[in-house]
Design a protein that fits this description.
- By secondary structure, the chain is an alpha/beta fold.
- It has one domain: 3-Layer(aba) Sandwich (Rossmann fold), CATH 3.40.50.360.
- The chain is built from seven helices and seven strands, in the order E-H-E-H-H-E-H-E-E-E-H-H-E-H.
Length: about 190
Amino acid sequence: MKALIILSNPQSEASFCGAIAATAADVLRAAGADVVVHDLYAENFDPNLTTEELKKSLDELDGSIRKSIDELFAADVLVFVHPNWWGMPPANMVGWISRVVRQGVCYRFTEKGPEGFLGGKKTFVFTTANTPADIEEKFNHDPIRNLWTNIVANTVNLDDVTYVNFTSIILSDDQQRKAWLEEVKTIVSNAVK
């Protein structure tokens, strides 16, 4: 089993997002997975998709983008971890999606809509937020959940997506955060048994 974890938080190691990613990695390694972790901030990932890069075919790509595409296709398990900022992931996560989850590689458009090529992967999306869940759902219409479970999942054929949002981070204490990390352990371990 191969797993790919993509973490986006500017305080990666000191953040609760960092703790989520580390917990998921530990569970996956304990289950025997070969785990690759990319901390987009620590790696100084450039989120900008240039015109020149957009024109390149898969065979013309090299470096970290080609490597990330290969890792994405090789993975049996995907884990995405990031905070909710203004109803969006941080810019480098959005840029990672734009640059790695490429049209013509991970999906294509047909007369019936998008046809995705990433089916069969267990996918986990763990997000953190400060907005209370009821406000996020009632007034904001849960844009992060919609992004991952509808837009991304349906476009690339991720058919097994688990989405969990931990909130309110700013009001949580150590006991609450420990309980949330136990929840991450349970969710990931149950899915990879």
